[in-house]
Amino acid sequence: MFLRNYLIPRLLQYFLVIFLGITIVFFIPRLAPTNPVERTIAEIRSRGTYLDPNHIQAMVDALTEMYGLSGSWLEQYKDFWVRLSKGDFGVSFFQFPAPVMDLIKQALPWTVGLLLTTTVLSWLFGNIVGGMAGYAHNRGWSKILDFLAMFIRPIPYYVVALGLLILFGYVYRLFPIAGGATIGALPSFTWVYIKDVLRHAFLPALSMVMLGGASWFQTSKLIVQNIKAEDFVQYAQLGGIKESRIMFRYIIRNAMLPQVTNLALSLGQILSGALITEIAFSYPGIGHLLYSAITTGDYNLIMGIISMSIVAITTLVLIVDLIYPLFDPRIRYK
Amino acid sequence: MAIGSTLKDLFRDYRFTVAFIVLLFLVGLAIASFFSPYDPTIWYYAPRDLKPSNEYILGTDSRGQDIFWQATFAIRNSLIISVVAGLISRIIAVAVGLVAGYQGGRTDRVLMFISDGFLVIPLFLILVMLAMLIRDKMNIFNTGLLLAVFGWAWDARVLRAQVLSLREREFTKTAVLSGTPTLELVFKEYMPYITPLAFSTLINNMSWAIGMEMTLSIIGLTNMDIPTLGTNLKWALNYQAILMRRWNWILTPVVLSVLLFIALYWLSISISEYLDPRTRVQRVGGE
Question: Which residue of A219, A238, A278, B165 has the lowest C-beta tally within 10 Å?
Answer without folding.
Answer: A238
